[in-house]
Amino acid sequence: MNEIIFIVEEDIEGGYNAKALSESIFTQGENIEELRANIRDAVDCHFDSASKPKMIRLHFVSEEVLAA
């Protein structure tokens, strides 16, 4: 596997949530820096060194509500 993609969303209670699309990996962080570190740790724990992806892609999803 060359790449793993995470969907990143803001948590309603603060911080960020990230979920991998192709693997059962989920993690959180209070800020973007902490989230990035937690994603790297989660990927390191999930894969052995031979099968670990070479690239981690973060796809940020945001939601905006407009009053009608």
Q: What would you say this structure looks like, in words?
A:
The chain has 68 residues and is of the alpha+beta class. It has one domain. 22% of the residues lie in helices and 35% in strands. It has one helix and four strands, in the order βββαβ. A four-stranded mixed β-sheet has the order 3-2-1-4, with helices on one face. The protein is elongated, with a radius of gyration of 13 Å. 12% of the residues are buried. The model has no long low-confidence stretch (mean pLDDT 95).
Describe the secondary structure blueprint for this structure:
Blueprint: E1 3-10, E2 16-20, E3 26-29, H1 32-46, E4 55-61
Parallel strand pairs: 1-4
Antiparallel strand pairs: 1-2, 2-3
Q: What would you say about this model in short?
A:
The chain has 68 residues and is an alpha+beta fold.
For this entry, give a set of tags.
68 residues, alpha+beta, 4 strands, four-stranded mixed beta sheet, single chain
* Total helical elements: 1
Number of strands: 4
The first-to-last residue Cα distance is 45 Å
Major sheet description? 4 strands, mixed
Strand residues, percent: 35-45%
- Coarse shape: elongated
Structural domains: how many: 1
**Amount of helix:** 10-25%
Low-pLDDT runs of 5+ residues are none
Order of strands, widest sheet: 3-2-1-4
Q: Report the order of strands and helices.
A: EEEHE
Integer average pLDDT: 95
The radius of gyration over CA amounts to 13 Å
- The secondary-structure class comes to alpha+beta
